[in-house]
UniProtKB/TrEMBL annotation:
<protein>
    <submittedName>
        <fullName>16S rRNA (Guanine(966)-N(2))-methyltransferase RsmD</fullName>
        <ecNumber>2.1.1.171</ecNumber>
    </submittedName>
</protein>
<dbReference type="GO" id="GO:0052913">
    <property type="term" value="F:16S rRNA (guanine(966)-N(2))-methyltransferase activity"/>
</dbReference>
<dbReference type="InterPro" id="IPR004398">
    <property type="entry name" value="RNA_MeTrfase_RsmD"/>
</dbReference>
<keyword id="KW-0808">Transferase</keyword>
<dbReference type="Pfam" id="PF03602">
    <property type="entry name" value="Cons_hypoth95"/>
</dbReference>
<keyword id="KW-0489">Methyltransferase</keyword>
<dbReference type="InterPro" id="IPR029063">
    <property type="entry name" value="SAM-dependent_MTases_sf"/>
</dbReference>
């Protein structure tokens, strides 16, 4: 079972695609949001969830107070699941929004690289505070490096990037513009954090 851990939609069960995705465990999601919370990068932020699957990472951010989440997933069934989960989480957040600030969540059904290239072509200006990448373990390192390079111009100057991979994967190849921040391991999962290079 996958569920939202905390916030306005806490304990809400999420639908998970039947195949083709690997949901982030609750333990790892809790670690991710504990880190983001310590950096004051949850409340009011704009979150980009790449390789979103069910949308659990981006929607956890919305539940905890993020202003918006953009979920990018190319597989049709997973994108449909993410859209249904987004509607459910937004409804729960709307019921608890006493200040009238309703968060938003949108799903883009396309490949990560196509999405990023389209954003750059349309308006290459910063628009996200947090980028969460949880690609399939078999994604090639060159493709991940291309994703990260395309992402840099779209990030706020104080943004952070998280890459979730198998502990058997090498550290991502960080492009110019991103500087590694920390690495943590949880069982078979490795989390690599980076920030905008100063």
């Amino acid at each position: 079972m996958t569920r939202i851990i905390a916030g306005a939609a806490g304990s809400l069960r999420l639908e998970v695609p039947r195949s083709g995705t690997r949901p982030t465990s609750e333990r790892v999601r809790e670690a991710v949001f504990s880190t983001l919370g310590s950096w004051e990068l949850v409340s009011g932020t704009r979150v980009l969830d790449l390789y979103a699957g069910s949308g659990a990472l981006g929607l956890e951010a919305v539940s905890r107070g993020a202003a918006s989440a953009t979920l990018v997933e190319r597989h049709a069934q997973a994108a449909q699941v993410a859209a249904r989960n987004a509607r459910t989480v937004l409804a729960a957040c709307g019921r608890s929004a006493s200040d009238g600030n309703q968060p938003t969540a949108e799903v883009a059904r396309q490949s990560v690289q196509a999405f990023l290239d389209a954003q750059l072509a349309r308006d290459p200006s910063p628009r996200w505070d947090v980028a969460l990448l949880d690609p399939p373990y078999d994604l090639g390192e060159a493709e991940l490096a291309a994703n990260l390079a395309a992402l840099v111009p779209l990030l706020d100057p104080d943004a952070v990037v998280l890459v979730e991979r198998s502990t058997r994967s090498p550290e991502p190849v960080w492009p110019d513009g991103l500087a590694p921040l920390r690495e943590k391991r949880y069982g078979e999962t490795a989390l690599w954090w980076a920030e905008i290079a100063r």
